[in-house]
Specification:
mainly beta; five-stranded antiparallel β-sheet; CarD-like/TRCF_RID_sf
């Protein structure tokens, strides 16, 4: 069975609570970050609400929002 890429919408008449959306993570240029796949890095550029450019030492990667695999240190 495959999972739909589109989240289900919550109906106001539903007896269940609406799913809570996690707050968007904010990063600034110079922030140290940890990424699940690429390791430790430093934010070198920001595209507001779209992506951040992170220097991981050997490679620079453009990480797209919502940054699920990345956290600030």
């Amino acid at each position: 069975m495959t999972k739909s890429a589109v989240p289900r919408r919550h109906l106001p008449s539903s007896p269940f609570k609406a799913p809570v959306e996690p707050p968007l993570r904010q990063f600034s240029v110079g922030d140290r970050v940890s990424h699940d796949e690429h390791g430790l890095g430093r934010v070198v550029g920001i595209e507001e609400g779209i992506a951040v450019l992170v220097d991981f030492g050997s490679v620079q990667k453009r990480i797209l929002s919502p940054y699920t695999k990345m956290s600030a240190l």
